[in-house]
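Postdoc handover notes: sequence design on the structure in folder B. Input tokens:
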């Protein structure tokens, strides 16, 4: 593989078990593919996505009808792109004009996408102006909510948004990173409450049955139950100062900057860290 990792930002898995890693590509890499695909055993399959060079960030997958599609957030080119699994581009969306919140040069820098049960989707403007935008199944704007602030319903770096189906009704969970919290919202963007406390800089959320996994940029990965109670943490202290370390200096199981985490189909957890030379860790399910 003639690719040198940049910051490994996002991971997702398709129905066949293939794993897609989104990264920024190292400046010295001869091949500029920002999406690298592995099979379920971690064997390299293919790579593509030079259009995301420097901006490969959040990546999510959804089955629509009989086909699966990838949704990419490109922070360098400030857009969200929908592709087929082979990288064929279907559409690209830049700054949404409809909400009227990007006047006077306010930035739009999307970080992650999540999906509405009716076929629509949400875009988290995590590195821009801290809005979340909802679109329908035809990629038409529906509403925007949030904006920068610290009160309920406001965000400071809503790095990711994810659908939580563990309760009687689905809700949205927002990793409100620089407010150091997870925030629960209705599907139409109204504040419900806050999830488990104690997070430092939560980056993402993924669910398997009643358990959620939360990668925290300050060297932690946390598991919480359906009642939003912490049931396990991985990582012992802040190791963010090792972000620029050499690979041989990293300690297995000692996290530096967890940026994305997903449950694989078999219950294992895969973690991508925001590290300039890339780092992917697999936690095996043992019980």
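Designed sequence:
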């Amino acid at each position: 593989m003639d690719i040198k990792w940049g910051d490994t930002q996002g991971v997702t898995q398709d129905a066949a078990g293939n794993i897609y890693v989104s990264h920024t590509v190292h400046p010295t890499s001869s091949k500029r593919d920002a999406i690298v695909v592995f099979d379920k055993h971690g064997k390299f399959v293919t790579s593509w996505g030079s259009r995301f060079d420097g901006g490969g960030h959040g990546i999510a997958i959804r089955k629509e009808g009989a086909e699966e599609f990838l949704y990419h957030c490109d922070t360098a080119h400030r857009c969200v792109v929908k592709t087929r699994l082979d990288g064929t581009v279907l559409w690209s969306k830049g700054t949404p004009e409809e909400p009227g919140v990007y006047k006077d040069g306010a930035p739009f820098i999307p970080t992650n996408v999540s999906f509405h049960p009716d076929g629509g989707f949400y875009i988290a403007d995590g590195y821009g102006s801290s809005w979340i935008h909802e679109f329908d199944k035809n990629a038409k704007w529906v509403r925007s909510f949030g904006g920068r602030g610290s009160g309920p319903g406001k965000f400071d770096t809503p790095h990711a948004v994810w659908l939580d189906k563990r309760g009687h009704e689905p809700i949205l969970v927002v990793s409100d990173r620089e407010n150091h919290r997870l925030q629960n919202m209705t599907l139409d963007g109204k504040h419900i409450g806050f999830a488990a406390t104690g997070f430092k800089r939560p980056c993402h959320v993924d669910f398997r049955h009643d358990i959620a996994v939360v990668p925290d940029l300050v060297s932690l990965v946390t598991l919480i139950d359906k009642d939003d109670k912490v049931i396990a943490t991985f990582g012992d202290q802040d190791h963010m100062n090792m972000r620029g370390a050499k690979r041989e200096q990293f300690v297995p199981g000692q996290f530096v900057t967890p940026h994305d985490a997903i449950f694989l189909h078999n219950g294992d957890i895969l973690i991508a860290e925001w590290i300039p030379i890339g780092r992917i860790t697999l936690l095996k399910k043992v019980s």
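Context for whoever picks this up: The chain has a mean pLDDT of 96. Don't rerun without checking with the PI first.
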